[in-house]
Write a structure and sequence with these properties.
Length: 119
């Protein structure tokens, strides 16, 4: 059975569903293993804190007050933004990997728990 759509013949939804679904077990479980790898890599980066991720102190020219107004404003802005900057970039990357892996794992597990349509 097919449907007409702007002069083209489209396959019926049941034909598409039978071709695409159900995914084999390996394809359904692959995201779980991938999420585990993301979580493991993120935890490793946070725990080991590699030296190549260290960021130098932003106040390289010192903290003494500046005479000119725009330099004082730049110094205050630098100090304000520095509170949000990470001291080790790999910590931020590790946290992102942990969050992404956990989100992928939860989404995949809930997808498996939800089951197929109509069942």
């Amino acid at each position: 059975m097919s449907n007409k759509f702007y002069g083209r013949t489209l396959p019926a939804l049941t034909e598409i569903k039978n071709e695409v679904l159900p995914a084999d077990r390996r394809a359904r479980l692959a995201p779980i293993f991938f999420a585990g790898a993301l979580i493991g890599l993120g935890a490793t980066l946070i725990k080991t804190k590699p030296r190549f991720g260290n960021v130098p102190n932003p106040s390289q020219f010192g903290d003494m007050p500046r005479r000119k107004g725009w330099r004082r404003a730049a110094q205050k802005s630098r100090d304000g933004v520095a509170t949000f900057a990470p001291s080790n970039v790999t910590d931020s990357l590790g946290r992102s990997l942990l969050l992404g892996g956990a989100a992928l794992l939860v989404a995949r597990v809930l997808d498996e728990a939800a089951g197929r349509n109509g069942k």
